[in-house]
Amino acid sequence: MTGNAVVVGGGIGGLAAAIGLRRIGWTATVLERSCELGEIGAGMSQSPNALRALAELGVADAARAAGVPFPGIFNLRVPSGGHIARALPGTTGPLLGFHRADLHRVLLDAVPAGWVRTGAQVSAVRQDGDEVVVGWGAEELRADLAVAADGVHSTVRRLLWPEARDPRFWGNTVWRGIAHADGVDAAMTLGRGRYFLAMPVGRGRVYWALGARADRPGVRYDDELAEVRRRVQGWHDPIPRLLEATAPEAVLHHDITDLDPLSGYVRGRVVLLGDAAHAMHPDMAQGAAQSLEDAVVLAAALAESGDDIPAALARYDERRRPRTQTIVRQARAKGLGSTSGNAVGYHLRTTALRLVPSSRWPALAAKALAPVWDWTPPPLPR
């Protein structure tokens, strides 16, 4: 069957969904609420499962050209500068680091011209027989399917899943920025109650992030960059240099939230995808990765089911909900553990990590993350 869809949201998940639909012969209209299309954010890493999803969508070569090998998970330090683990020479690791805008552009370039409409703030979604009607402003579209990829604060989820709880804050907050600096190695610095990530993303840019505990959500500072400096005062180089090379007005500060498990990702002919379905902590680098997986599985389910769209959506829900909700729980636990302020726990954790030879880190990481990283996408029509 060939069909037509409305995709709500023009971020990474929404564009991936549109590409997947195109590959199975569907057409789609992507509705993006922002007046200018682009990706808000700074940096991200993509793991092997995400790269396989990008390959199935036909954009792997372009994505690899835009990314930078990221060995930071093997390069662990403490605030004084000492190494807990050190990436061995020649070790690149299985991850690629991206500026979010670069990966977004790779996906946007693969979406047919004219499929994306900006300035479209969706305000209504309703079922009408074998169609779904999506409205924004004075306009509306009818389609065989609506894909809600409109993020953690999804309008579509609020309209059609009224029983769903609001995104939950668990006590973590994060600052993010892009510094223009050369000669910076990828690394993760583990402090007590906070961590600092440095990840080169190409063209002389380094993405950095400071994750920390927060007593309550919504606390903001007149000078966010100054607050970051205060929290990492005395930490090793190149952290001070990265902050010095960051424009103060470009620092992003977000509280981290995730979603409690939903009973289903489908209502009629409306399906949730990405953060709209399973927003998660960023500590396993799986937020965007799971939206890419969603896009491939949705397209494959539609291709397998022919004219039976409800059966396809049921198959999508069955395949995606258990996996994504498990990863939400795992990412939450990892995120809360990484910002624990307990002195004894921090000492035990860093001591245990130091006991592992650096040469064993790649194999241990691959084994520990195999349930996530070893995912294989269903094949899409070529």
TrEMBL record:
Transmembrane segments: none annotated. GO terms for molecular function: monooxygenase activity. Residues 5-331 form the FAD-binding domain. The keyword Oxidoreductase applies. PANTHER family: MONOOXYGENASE, PUTATIVE (AFU_ORTHOLOGUE AFUA_6G14510)-RELATED. InterPro entries: FAD-bd (IPR002938), FAD-dep_Monooxygenase_BioMet (IPR050493), FAD/NAD-bd_sf (IPR036188). Keywords: Monooxygenase, Oxidoreductase. This is FAD-dependent monooxygenase. Pfam families: FAD_binding_3 (PF01494).
